[in-house]
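DM from R.C. (forwarded with permission)

"hey, sorry to bug you on a friday — could you get me a structure for this? deadline for the figure draft is monday and I only need the backbone to look sensible"
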Amino acid sequence: MPDYGRALEFGVSVEPLADPPDFAARMATTADRAGLDLVGIQDHPYQRRFLDTWTLISTLVPVTGNVRFFTDVANLPLRPPVMLAKAAASLDAISGGRVEVGLGAGAFWDAVVGMGGPRRSPGEALRSTEEAIEVMRMVWSGERSLRFEGEFYSLKGMRPGPPPAHDIGIWVGAYGPRMLGLIGRKADGWVPSLGFSPPGRLPGMHEKIDEGAAEAGRDPSGIKRVYNVSGNIGPEGEGRLEGSAEKWIETLAGFVLEYGMDTFVYWPNRDHGRQVELFANEVVPGVREAVARERGAGLNS
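My reply, with the result:
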């Protein structure tokens, strides 16, 4: 799998824990001070231990200055896309352009239904996600009056605003071939997790995205590839990402150069604050250097 040549970004995944209530703020400010690019916050509204993701992000924006936030990934069945787009645009305007949207078609359907949401078949999940992307882009378009009539969503003369401060990216979390094709045709990025899409599966998944991009006349290198990774920086362990900073650097650089990923969102297994600092200060610079060196060597060969 070729390196798509995209600029690298790095972030941290933060659980929206209600106890302790300051956990997310501590992690976000640590990531911000350490110079990371992104904070991703998962969205499972039916999880009783979790705060609401959008409410939480709105409290993290004022205590940070540079890091960008994204839903990793937003639960579409429980968040109508018109309101998701309105919330994202509002936070983007407040933060000066520091919000992106990770979007998920849905999972844990019993829990979704338990909150009054729909239970969708795989085909329905695909079609609703495609409609949602269209609706959200319309809401951000600056048009004066919006009309849309779809299978799942409709707009009947909505007057959108305020506009976002920047072009918000829509990054879809998905694994199936049809949804990967949709990402290639319509989305700005892909957000898989290492546990569900190990490196050996990535070439075939990239291929589906790239086929979708080609079908839509898009450049595959324009699609961001975000990898959620977990592990521990420290003593050697049996896991792929359990070990020294040097092991992490070699592994993540390989994910870029051999497997086509460009952005890494780290979910520490323990000692979260210290792990975020180690990731930002020891791993990230090493990965950037290793990738730049190999890319430079390729240009000069």
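R.C.: lifesaver. The longest strand covers residues 224-233.
me: no worries. The domain at 9-225 is CATH 3.20.20.30 (TIM Barrel).
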